[in-house]
Amino acid sequence: MELVQEADYRFRIDPHGAMRVPGVVFASRALLPDAEKSLEQVANVATLPGIVGASYAMPDIHWGYGFPIGGVAATDVDEGGVVSPGGVGFDISCGVRLLAADTDRHSFRSALSAVMDGLDRAIPRGAGPGGVWHLTGPGQLERILRGGSRYAVEEGHGEERDLRRCEDGGAVADADVGEVSVRARQRGLGQVGSLGSANHFLEVQYVDEVHDERAAAAFGLALGQVCVMIHCGSRGLGHQICTDHVKAMDRAMSRYDITVPDRQLACTPVDSPEGRAYLGAMAAAANYGRANRQLLSDAARGVFRGAAGARLSLVYDVSHNLAKIETHTVAGARRTLCVHRKGATRAFPPGHPDLPDDLREAGQPVLIPGTMGTASYVLTGVPGGDAFHSTCHGAGRLLSRHQAARTVTGRDLRARLESEGIAVRPRSLRGLAEETPEAYKDVGEVVAASEGAGLCRRVARLVPLGVVKG
DNA sequence: ATGTCC
């Protein structure tokens, strides 16, 4: 795959074969080792009907199902543009929530161990069932799928203010519960309020560097402040919805005369029965993921209150795996686009009308979970930019789970983290080893490349005090 | 990511 360098941190893949638009990759050469497979996926996405602008890739690009992880693709809804479940991924609405404590790391130090033990008991995690909420019946699951974080807050698991600090006010309105299969519901029933496994985590962190004082103040962050970061998604429910709708679209595609270079790019027009069905089910999973993060926040708040006498205020909650219908100006014209972000985070600039009043001047908080034991970042959107107000989502994997687990034992990794002063509460030592920092790109380099490409600006760097993992 | 293959 030939990459033409256009600027620092910006490469172009010229259209060839069935590509309708170019590929644009925001990265440095150093961030693209062995990227051939994922760059081919960038080119494949550029063949989708109705794609607008370019098939974009963020600096944390790596190989994924059909679309690369770290990919952004927008299609024009009024021009036959398609929606593809592979452009969202299996973990629909996977995302990050950051809460800021009313304490700094020095005052907090003596409480850390008790807080970690409390979180160890309070946070359900790992593969399979288990969640903080035990549903009273199927009607309650439907209310979660329609109401997301808003429903959890209505039930007493949070504050009204939380909802103003959530993307979409904590729930999207267009969930179609009828498009969520019985099997997806069954899988979702017992996992409401759970972390899951792999790179999902809950971390106790503190603000280690502030890069932008004004934005940090607007977000409620200050140097030394203790924070809680929660990274999780829609568990088995979202996974099953992706499986169901990929299958349905794979069968339906030929009726729309759509051919794709890879079956994993199965898609139909946004404005088709199959497209609307997927988007309705995806919205339900989006709400499930948000309720999930709201309930885990509530559990963490209880632990912080009891073990440290500390309060947690929501900084923001944003997904990095979603397709959204958004209005963007393209070549001077307002167009209705279906923006797929898969391992890419929405990053609204200052002044965007969808931001709450108290964030309008600073821009949207963008939450970047780092690799376990390293740093995480808070960024903000910037004016102009490219890729439909999107930026990176994390470090990006380099080694497979199997390769990672061969480099270190879970026991040794835990000892290493503890010796660095990071408390670790793993559910499984094997799972811990699979997440060793060596398996990932350097999140600092990913963030620097994203900023260098003009996609976002750094606000703060966070480092871990304690890790809760599946 | 995921009842890591219905």
From TrEMBL:
Cited PROSITE patterns: UPF0027 (PS01288)
Residue ranges of coiled coil: none
Catalytic activity annotation: a 3'-end 3'-phospho-ribonucleotide-RNA + a 5'-end dephospho-ribonucleoside-RNA + GTP = a ribonucleotidyl-ribonucleotide-RNA + GMP + diphosphate; a 3'-end 2',3'-cyclophospho-ribonucleotide-RNA + a 5'-end dephospho-ribonucleoside-RNA + GTP + H2O = a ribonucleotidyl-ribonucleotide-RNA + GMP + diphosphate + H(+)
Known EC number: 6.5.1.-
Active site (UniProt): H393 (gmp-histidine intermediate)
Cofactor note: Binds 2 manganese ions per subunit.
Cofactor: Mn(2+)
Residues that hold Mn(2+) 1 according to the record: D91, H200
Binding residue positions for GMP: 199-203, 320-321, 369-372, 376, 393-396, 469
Any one Gene Ontology molecular-function term assigned to this protein's record: RNA ligase (ATP) activity
Top EC category: ligase
Pfam families per the UniProt record, alphabetical: RtcB
UniProtKB keywords: GTP-binding, Ligase, Manganese, Metal-binding, Nucleotide-binding, RNA repair
Swiss-Prot/TrEMBL GO biological process terms: RNA processing; RNA repair
InterPro entries in the cross-refs: RtcB, RtcB-like_sf
Highest taxon above the source species: Bacteria
Binding site for Mn(2+) 2: H231, H320
Transmembrane portions of the chain: none
Family, similarity comment: Belongs to the RtcB family.
Subunit structure, interactors included: Monomer.
Protein name: tRNA-splicing ligase RtcB
Organismal lineage: Bacteria, Bacillati, Actinomycetota, Actinomycetes, Kitasatosporales
Originating gene: rtcB
